[in-house]
Amino acid sequence: MNKYLVFFFLIIGFSSKGQVSVTLDSAIANALRTHPQIQFSQQELEQQKALKRGSFNLENPSVGTEAPYGKKFEIAVQQNIQNPVIYIQQSKLGKQNVLLSEQNQQITKWQLIRDVRTVYLNLQYAEIRVKQLSYQDSIFHNLSVAAERRFNAGDAGLLEKVSAETKSKEIENFLKQAKADLQNAQLQLQLITSLKDANIHSKDEIGKTTTTIPIEIRLDSTAINQSPLLKYFEQNTLVNKQNLRLQKSKVLPGLSIGYLNQVGTDQPTNFRMRYGITLPLWFWTYSSQIKAAKYQYQMSQSQYAIAQKTYSSEYTQALNDFSKYSGSLNYYEQTGLKQAETIISTAQRSYEAGEISYITYMQSLNQAFEIKLNYLETIRNYNQSIIELNYLKGQ
């Protein structure tokens, strides 16, 4: 952990009674095991597998009775069979639908992982912000008490007393808001992971995420090929392309086989077989289905093109955010935090020596604490940009 974060933990912590400490990995594992979205995507996949097994769907046979000579009823059976090419195309379409469901399951998984990482990061940020504001609240409360004593003793003016009291109340209000944000973050993590305990705390303290992403990286074919979202839309075009082939194959003639008893009892053979073909004469029906399938295929291609542009925009934005927050984080680590520490120590010595007024001392502390809070927010934004990049890259 960065040495400058040590400053934030030199305060009174929360009571550990009833707390549940959760790691990021355990939160992700629990969400993947229990979240309804994962269960739904698995059920959808099983549904498509079941439909694929029914690709060879024969029509129900026609069974009846006949009395060729009006004396005795005999059984007659008729079975129509579609052209074998249709069954082959239906099987291929079923396979493509299974692959589409698998891609959808992958998207659901990565979206859930992204969401858990984000919620966990928000919890880490909320926890450390409460600690930081608790530390500030303690400092400004003591300053307010001291200013009131000095005012009562006649050593300080009304402005110093009111300013100290106002700042103390302001920080106290910020702390209440931060605690409410912490409770909300705990609730969000509980909901997404299905944990029973509401008093959840992160086991790992917030810090700069280690990554090998170079700042100068740009969108390339590797990132596109690894994206679960783009794979889904690409597979969707293959599904609609196969459906178009299926609709075209339905204009092929089918087969008809039947058993018909149409002879008398005095004949040596008392049954006859009938063979024929089915002809797709109602061409307008097939034509409209083919045309609709063609438009659906074209629409899926357009959806894929839109998804590529949207992905490119989101990826570029995530890269820009990563670059922006990486540079900002470097400033705080190399300059900002050191300056904040210098401001605090220098202002304290100067105030105790009587070299600066209370107002100047308070303004200096405000400036230093604002730097530290901005640093924490920058860490969160930096880590969030990495979460988004990993999601877009399918990592």
Write a brief structural summary:
With 395 residues, the chain is α+β, with helices and mostly antiparallel strands. The chain has helices spanning 24-34, 36-53, 84-152, 158-193, 221-226, 228-249, 283-352, 358-392, and strands at 20-22, 62-66, 74-81, 200-202, 254-260, 272-278.
Write up this protein.
With 395 residues, this protein is of the alpha+beta class. Helix content is 68%, strand content 8%. It has one domain: Outer membrane efflux proteins (OEP). It has 8 helices and 6 strands; from the N terminus they run βααββααβααββαα. A hairpin with a 7-residue loop joins strand 2 and strand 3 (74-81). The longest helix has 70 residues, at 283-352. The two termini are 24 Å apart.
Brief descriptors of the model:
single chain; 395 residues; alpha+beta; Outer membrane efflux proteins (OEP); 4-stranded antiparallel β-sheet; two-stranded parallel ribbon; 8 helices; 8% strand
CATH-level-4 superfamily name:
Outer membrane efflux proteins (OEP)
**Structural class by secondary-structure content:** alpha+beta
- Indicate the CATH architecture: Up-down Bundle
- Work out the helix count: 8
Order of helices and strands: EHHEEHHEHHEEHH
The general outline is: elongated
Can you tell me the number of structural domains?
Answer: 1
Might you state the CATH topology name? Outer membrane efflux proteins (OEP)
Low-confidence stretches: 1-17
Helix content: 55-70%
Write down the Rg. Answer: 36 Å
Q: Span from first to last CA?
A: 24 Å
Task: Give the spatial strand order of the biggest sheet.
Answer: 2-3-5-6
| CATH top level label | Mainly Alpha
